[in-house]
Design goal:
alpha/beta, 15 helices, about 15% strand, TIM Barrel, 8-stranded parallel β-barrel, 12 strands, about 45% helix
Length: about 400
């Protein structure tokens, strides 16, 4: 029997734009219309069905749930904050609390208000101040009900997809502009961290735990020569640890939020900055046998290795996302079970992991991949919005209830 620590956070995660539906004021909504991409539309109608969804989570013995707030709902036009939207999110959080589920609240999960995008988005240095105003508006009602805050979801992924690869809005390919955006996101986190703590201190409330959710991979040299090992080390230091180290230096991190899905096999073709950071192995014979439906390798060993590399920060670690998109639900449970074993190994070796949140509670809109990928513990039939609890959710629910994994399946 593999027992996890007491008071462990068990649950799943969602993000507002991916599940709520009808976020017409967001930059993604406008971008979908302009590019002809598959529209998010009604998504999972979670904005109206959240109580039903949380009943399912409670029935699966979740004691924690990560959600995000949609900035474009809360501030649909610059300086025009919506009390109605804020009241809605308060009710969402109270619904979780009524079911004994701890909310972990994310302030920014990839999407921006359309008006902000027109002002240059995160390239505009003024966005940092605007983000603080948005954060202050949220805190006035939500602070008493929230212990865990995640300011920004996967800032390096946002930078990479939107400003290096040019796949996401605003579809720009510029290393210089990418660096500018990363700096502004970092400044926004540091200032928001201080604002959140000051708010709780001023109101004489128990101080909160504040972090980011950082996407991390296990960077593995395909052939362990000097160039590949150097590239793997550089990628780990920038993609995985760069912002974490910066926030630690600024004393702006209470725990480390880790989003982990797979590894990256590094094979550098030639010397060059872009090659050192971008080249990967494409040899079919080097792939592991199981992948998700998007082609990402199932590599649970990498999560243990990543967690052990975080020990030196001496901060609690929460797995804020880990999951698989697949039509094979048996594979979904094998994925979860293998990653939980990997986490348990890391804990035994001293990694201070305090929670695990599966991505995602339900099937949802997966950004530029649309509705094809199926990550959910709960299946969604989009035409009818029928929810179906998958067997993997039931098996995971047993772990959530007992805090233990059977040693042998």
């Amino acid at each position: 029997m593999f027992k996890f620590p007491g008071n462990f956070l068990w649950g799943a995660a969602t993000s507002a734009y991916q599940v709520e539906g009808g976020n017409t004021r967001a930059d993604w909504w406008q971008w979908e219309k302009e590019t002809g991409k598959e529209p998010s539309g009604d998504a999972c109608r979670h904005y109206g069905l959240y109580e039903q969804d949380f009943d399912l989570a409670k029935g699966l013995h979740h004691n924690a749930h990560r959600l995000s707030l949609e900035w474009s709902r809360l501030e649909p036009e610059e300086g025009q904050f919506s009390e109605e939207a804020l009241e809605h999110y308060l009710n969402v959080i109270l619904a979780l609390r009524a079911r004994g589920i701890e909310p972990l609240v994310t302030l920014h999960h990839f999407t921006n208000p359309a008006w902000l995008a027109k002002k240059g988005g995160w390239e505009n240095p003024g966005t940092v101040k605007l983000f603080l105003k948005y954060t202050a508006f949220i805190l006035k009602k939500l602070a008493p009900q929230v212990r865990y805050w995640i300011t920004i979801n996967e800032p390096t992924v946002y930078v990479y997809e939107s400003y290096i690869m040019g796949l996401w809005p605003p579809q720009i390919k510029s290393l210089w502009r990418a660096r500018t955006v990363e700096n502004h996101l970092a400044a926004a986190h540091i200032k928001a961290y201080r604002l959140i703590h000051e708010t709780y201190w001023r109101k004489k409330m128990q101080l909160p735990s504040v972090s980011i959710a950082q996407h991390m991979q296990d960077f593995v040299p395909c052939v362990p020569d000097f160039r590949n090992k150097l590239a793997a080390s550089l990628r780990h230091r920038w993609f995985n640890l760069g912002l974490i180290s910066k926030f630690r230096r600024h004393k702006a991190l209470d725990f480390i939020g880790v989003n982990y899905y797979s590894r990256q096999r590094v094979e550098v073709q030639k010397w060059g900055l872009r090659n050192l950071f971008m080249d990967i192995c494409v040899k079919a014979e080097h792939r592991v046998p199981e992948t998700n439906s998007s082609g990402w390798e199932v590599y649970p060993e990498g999560l243990c290795r990543v967690l052990l590399k975080l020990k030196g920060y001496h901060l609690p670690i929460v797995i804020t996302e880990n999951g698989i998109c697949t039509p094979d639900d048996a594979l979904r449970w094998r994925y979860i079970e293998a990653h939980l074993r990997s986490i348990h190994r890391a804990i035994r070796e001293g990694a201070p992991v305090t929670g695990y949140l599966y991505w995602s509670l339900m099937d949802n809109f997966e950004w530029h991949d649309g509705f094809g990928p199926r990550f959910g513990l709960i299946g969604i039939d989009y035409p009818t919005q029928q929810r179906t609890v998958r067997e993997s959710a039931v098996q995971f629910g047993k772990v959530c209830k007992t805090g233990a994994l059977e040693q042998d399946l």
